Here is the input.
Amino acid sequence: MLRRLAQRADSELVFDHVSLVKSGPTLALRVPTGSTVAIMGAANSGKTKLLRSILGQASVARGKITIPGEGIFVGDSEWSRRETPTSVARRILGKGSLQLFTEAISALGLWDIRQKSCASLGAGHQNAVHFIPALLESSKVICTDHGFDLLDISILESLWSFLRQRLTDERVLVYSTARPDIGERADQVIVLKDQQIAFSGSPEELRRTQVETEFEVVTENQPGVRALVEPFQISVQEIPDGLRIRAEEGQAIAARLLVEGYGDVRYVVQRPPSFRDALSRLI
Here is the structure.
């Protein structure tokens, strides 16, 4: 049955067996207020559609989405070419909180250019202007589609800190991103592939889907070390100073004990699975 509109919940963003297509896995996820959710996937994987569905602006093929109050989509608010960051903010706040105005404009890196016309700003600062309504209004759900990806690192850090403070226990932030470093910041991650749910869970849970741990063993006696580790379910590759060993979960500890206990091994570098590696395997 087609569900068109997001419904309202009390204190959680709820994906109740949601799917963008009529077959395949569904998304069952409860996100308490105060949390952040990253939606990730390749181009045309359905990220924007899922984001729009949260606010009832697009339809899902199966299931339903409930939200803890009114929502806002960063970028949907319009402003004229002559408006400035100050006028955009004042249109929302009126003569309200000067402190909130100052903190929000500063967090977006717009304080020094707050009186300049939005049309004269560079792409990165124009993108920051789009965040002003989300920071100043009392919307319970904030959605942004790649809104963080174009920000300078300094603005990203200050904006992220400000948003985390504003979320408290009352709001939810949901964002799509193509950048693993930004996706890994979220409390929950949803990965889409070909409009289907490929994964949902915490960043740590996503990392665990990548089963291989990599070791670099620096040794002069490669044949001896190779003879010790080859009985295990691992791959061994020669590198200039020794061997590179990849071991699946459960084999990694045994492999490390063997190579570290071998006499002429100078050192072992262990590289556990990364968020980026695990994401790449999924999409």
Observations:
- DSSP finds eleven helices and 14 strands in the chain.
